[in-house]
Amino acid sequence: MSEPSRKPDPERFTARRGTLWMDRGMTFLIKLGGVGIIAGVCAMFVFIVWQVIPLFRHATVEPVRTVKLGLPEKALLGFDEWEELPFAYEAGNRFVTFFDLKNGAAPTRAALEIPESARVESARYNRARQDLVLGLSDGSFMRGIILYEPRFDKSGKRTITARVRTDGPHPLGEAGQALIQADYGQAEGRRLAAGLQNIGGKNRLFVQTFSQKRSLMGEGKVVPGRHFDLTDLIPENEHIAQVRVLATADGLIVSTQEGEIHYLFDDGESFSLRQSFYPFGDLGDRQIAQMGFVFGDVSLVCVGAQGHNRVFSLLRPEDENMRLWRQTKEFPKIAGGADIFDYSVRNKAFLVGGDRALSLRYNTTENVRWEGTFDFAVRAASIGPKYTSLNLIDGEGNLRIYALEDPHPEAGWKAFFGKIWYEGASAPDYTWQSSNANDDSEAKLSLIPLIFGTLKGTFFALLFALPISIMAAIYTSQFLHPRIKAFVKPLMEIMASLPSVVLGFLGALWLAPLLDTRVPSVLAMLIIVPGAAMVFGWAWTQLPIQYRKHIRPGRELFVAVPIVLLAAWAGWELGPWIERVLFVVQDPSTGVQTADFRLWWPQVTGISYDQRNSLVVGFMMGFAVIPIIFTIAEDALNNVPSALTSGSLALGASRWQTCRRIVLPTAAAGIFSALMIGFGRAVGETMIVVMATGNTPIMDWNIFSGMRTLSANIAMELPEAPQGSTHYRALFLGAVVLFVFTFLLNTAAEVMRQRLRDKYKTL
User: Fold this and answer.
1) 3-state SS string for 632-692
2) More exposed terminus of the chain, fewer Cβ within 10 Å: N or C?
3) How large is the average pLDDT for residues 116-144?
4) How far is residue 84's CA from residue 102's CA, in Å, rounded to a whole number?
5) Taking the model in full, what pTM does it have?
6) Could you give the CA distance from residue 627 to residue 139 in angstroms, rounded to a whole number?
7) Residue 452: what pLDDT?
8) How many CB atoms lie within 10 A of CB 748?
9) What is the CA radius of gyration of the chain?
10) Residue 218 · residue 154 · CB < 8 Å
11) What are the pLDDT digits (tens) for 491-535?
């Protein structure tokens, strides 16, 4: 008797309310998580960009106040570090006047110890040394050194006091003839003074050297040395206009009314005319309106009567064995010429202009930071000691103070991505050198060497990783026995979990010293091992089936591995023999013929050899990238439908033909994704590069030299960069470049992946 049929229960197909709520909740959480990740990435990018934006802002100048001082027309104005107690001096006076800007107290005077029989005929203020160089009517010169000192009372209130210390007078020109110009320079152990006297209607040039010995008790007394009349070194048909002494006290710059500049150098015994040039000869501007040094006295700013502005730097040209002046910068023309010049004592900025217009320019980057016009005639102008103000003297002798905001004058597109002609360099170049202790190590912030180093490290890492990882993925997926594959793939995935700091540690302390003496062995292995593997593969296919049938398909590995290991051992042992035969060179220290690849490489190729080099980085970074590429590529190969491979084999194709013509095209999109992910992993690697290479920011494809990458540079220098400084923000700019680079790379990879998928989806 048959059982009665049961009616279907509709409620058995209805989900419970709790299940629906759980499904909706999880869906919401997944969406929220995805949106949160996107928002987090965008927020990080916005934060990084926000730190970078100030680097590309121009300077701003805003009026602060006007102080009525009633300064004479030709008065010199100097400031203390705090800009609270400036001083003024006019040639002819025997005192310096100080003005209390902070408290508004009455001006005070400090006397200069000028001989009663002499009068001050000329004066020049050196802002870097805080002294006045005075030319006297009797042919001597003296210095008035301005000394500021902060004092604090019991309540902690600060008061700035000032005094003047006099040095001299010292004989310079002919006795009884007034010095119409005087200048002074000092360096370690030597001093140099230069002056002009108008004798017989022509300016004559005189110099006086001084020496100062240092003992255990400190600096000794300044002793006069040699005296010279250098007028005859200047062509007779030219008239001397200005003279400037170098801060190194071993030379001077002389300009003439005819627009030519002469460089006179002291070789220790006498002065010689080392160089002559016309700053604006090719422009038809034969007169020099202004001439002065930027901070460091290595770059000379010249302004022509027609407003042309060029900078010449003292450097050693590649074809010369001495330092000469060469044009390194050319700025936009100054409308109406320029009779005002001043420089910053904090950086390489300088101020030029005339009448009612001023222009603030930065020498290193050849950038105009600010330009402005005023509704009053500007008699004189100076940059504040801290580069935070501009101090102008108007036609009535009043002091007009302007706030200057320019925290990153050395920044700009050209500074980060263009070639810069730095002081002392023989040519423009891309350079990263973040320290700026003095003018010799001025901050150099080009990101190009770091971008180059990133690409170089990635290239050598992928050069090592791609063949191994892709071939291993193909063999594991298509040829390896399933039982062996069950061990190989998890082992490769475990390799991906190794910390990069451990790999960097091994690369620096184990691999680099090991490869340092066995480079020929490595080169031999790179040739012998792949060759042995290819020969084995070809020989295996040529064996009759009655021999190959004893080894099941997928287990050929047990035969291939010993042969590959034997080939590696043979290459390693052949290395020293190859070195003795091919890499023999003369040891420069002993003159003996020796077999040493480390000496052979630089002597033959002319490029350097470093122990921690790109070869080491390629091996260790490649070791970190191999598991990632292998895992993703192997998954892509395994995801090829089995119907395609079975059909190919059934039609008589071999396993290799099936892999090459069916599996690889079908999995091409996934393999390409694996390559791009591996590329991104190599680009962002930090610790391996920091520890396993020399971290030198150079642009050299030499495999035996190091590099510095963007990520490694950020990791090394960000902890030491002052927050908000140009260096700090430049490191964030490197992060933006790295971010944009990986974003564009991943976008291009995704577009390519979709095209490959569309191309092979019909297989």
Assistant:
1) HHHHHHHCCCHHHHHHHHHCCCCHHHHHHHHHHHHCHHHHHHHHHHHHHHHHCCCHHHHHH
2) N
3) 90
4) 5
5) 0.85
6) 82
7) 93
8) 11
9) 38
10) no
11) 888 887 888 888 888 888 888 888 888 889 988 998 998 888 888
Q: Which residues share a beta bridge with 537?
A: none
587 near 599, Cβ under 8 Å?
yes
Helix axes 710-717, 448-478, angle to 10 degrees: 120
* Among the listed residues 291, 313, 286, 285, the one whose alpha carbon sits nearest the alpha carbon of residue 303: 291
348, containing H or E segment: none
What span, in angstroms and rounded, lies between the C-alpha atoms of 494 and 737?
Answer: 32
Q: Among 705, 729, 706, which Cα is nearest to 717's?
A: 729
* Secondary structure E strands in 239-304: 240-245, 251-256, 261-266, 271-277, 288-293, 299-304
**Strand 140-152, strand 593-595: pairing:** unpaired
Model confidence pLDDT, tens digit, residues 314-338: 988 887 788 899 999 999 988 767 8
- Which range among 325-339, 650-664, 743-757 shows the weakest confidence by mean pLDDT? 743-757
Residue the block writes with tokens 């292998």: 630
Q: How many CA atoms lie within 13 A of 2 on its CB side?
A: 3
130: left (phi over 0), alpha (psi -120 to 50) or beta: left
What are 181's two structure tokens? 């110009």
- CB atoms inside a 10 Å sphere around CB 728: 16
Lowest pLDDT segment from 48-52, 283-287, 638-642: 283-287
Dump pLDDT digits (tens) for 341-394: 999 998 899 999 888 889 999 999 999 999 998 888 888 899 999 999 999 998
DSSP state of 420: B
Q: CA 189 → CA 142, 182, 218, 225, distances in Å? A: 19, 21, 12, 12
Q: Which residue carries 């005077």 as its tokens?
A: 109
Q: Can you say how many angstroms the Cα of residue 369 is from the centroid of all Cα atoms in its chain?
A: 20
Can you tell me the mean pLDDT for 477-483? 83
